[in-house]
Amino acid sequence: MTDRDGDAKDFWDKLRIILSPIGGLLTALAVASLGFIGSRTVERQQAAEAKIRLYSELMTRREESEATLRKEMFQSIIGSFFDAGSASLETKLLKMELLAENFHEALNLAPLFKSIHREITGGSEPPRLKQAYEARLADLAREVTRKQMLVLESGGKRKDWTVVFSDSLAEGAAPVQLEDAELTLDGIKRRFRVTISRADTIASELKMALEVETVAQPGVPSEAVGRHVVEFDVGFYSTPMIDNTRLSNDQRVAVVLSDMNRFGASVSLIYFPGSRASLREKPYYEEILRKLADTGQGR
Amino acid sequence: MFATLVTTVFAAASMLSGITGDLRLGEKYLALIPVQLKCGTEVVEGKTDAAGSFHLTAKGGGKCQVSVTYEKQTAALDVVLFDQPARYRLQLELKDGKYVLKRV
């Protein structure tokens, strides 16, 4: 009875005999596949990380070489401005152009602009040459502002006004309040009010007050809510990346004098993120982060 | 003689100034809309192009007025002309049934 029971194998016994090697085989295959997929994933990750490392290495090297070049260039140009018995106005203007074209994002050039302007007006050159120098200096300042505005506008919001001068504004007797600008940047809405209290057409400068109102809204700290007023002078030598007002949430606002004559002025307000202010070696940090994120998505 | 001629030509050229820019109604740029620049007695007529941009040059300068004719209404805005062309981003806004021209 026992032997017969031992010899007789039912369906399940047979299935167990057949499936036991297949099971082993499947387990081996599963382990092998897992290993293969795992190693492929690790390989891909390593390749992507190597790309990111290479990219950041290249960027660092480029920035290092750029910084060295710019440092040497800066030292050479700025040093020559303070040399005793320095060069002619023509040479100084050329140096100023070099400095402004290459370092306008990093340096407040207003004192140098004003110094050269004083030299031009107080110099002994013929009036026509003085006029030409003054125009060249003003054009350079406006070009710097225009370039900065283009960069800031791409990440911010802009509002332009035309101010038609009256005698009372020139005398500082009747301030002119420009139309309010309500601008929203990165979900933060603010109201800006510009009041011009005096227009100096000789020095090409406007004395103004800027009122910034931030209402309570999500993401804005309570201490930043309210109205704040700043007063300042704006001329052609005021550049928005340098001469700006710091706002909450790492934002900035600047008022720019785009153009001016005895009839009126063109004034612009630019509301932009703090990452674009002052010295920001190109590419900007958010650009690098975006590129890294793009590399990650491309895996 | 030649120097005087060159100086005169350059002086005349430098006196030319104008405005450049575009015209919108809300977010829509307005194409082929009559734009006029009036500086004293001088009137310069133009039209926006297919992209809603315009460029007007006047011989005079100083205080001027730019006007736009849209849907049988004319809206105007005071402008100032400088040595270099100034950029004007103009926007028409409907207020109480009347179009108002604004610089934005």
Helices and strands in order:
The complex is a heterodimer of chains A (299) and B (104).
Chain A: H1 2-7, H2 11-81, H3 89-103, H4 110-122, H5 127-155, E1 157-164, H6 167-171, E2 176-177, E3 181-185, E4 188-200, E5 205-214, E6 226-235, E7 245-247, E8 251-260, E9 264-273, H7 285-297
Helix pairs in contact in A: 2-3, 3-4, 3-5, 4-5
Chain B: H1 2-15, E1 17-25, E2 28-29, E3 34-39, E4 42-47, E5 53-58, E6 62-70, E7 73-81, E8 86-95, E9 98-103
Parallel strand pairs in B: 1-8
Antiparallel strand pairs in B: 1-2, 1-5, 3-4, 3-6, 6-7, 8-9
Could you characterize what this model shows?
- The complex is a heterodimer of chains A (299) and B (104).
- Helix content of chain A is 51%, strand content 24%.
- Chain A is built from 7 helices and 9 strands; from the N terminus they run αααααβαββββββββα.
- In chain A, helix 3 runs antiparallel to helix 4, helix 3 runs parallel beside helix 5 and helix 4 runs antiparallel to helix 5.
- The mean pLDDT of chain A is 87.
- Chain B has 104 residues and is mainly beta.
- Helix content of chain B is 13%, strand content 61%.
- Chain B has 1 helix and 9 strands; from the N terminus they run αβββββββββ.
- In chain B, the strands form 2 sheets. In chain B, strands 1, 2, 5, 8 and 9 form a 5-stranded mixed beta sheet that branches. A 4-stranded antiparallel beta sheet of chain B has the order 4-3-6-7, with no helix packed on it.
- Chain B is globular and about 35 Å long.
- Chain B starts with a helix and ends with a strand.
- The relative contact order of chain B is 0.22.
- Chains A and B meet through strand 1, strand 8 and strand 9 of A and strand 7 and strand 8 of B.
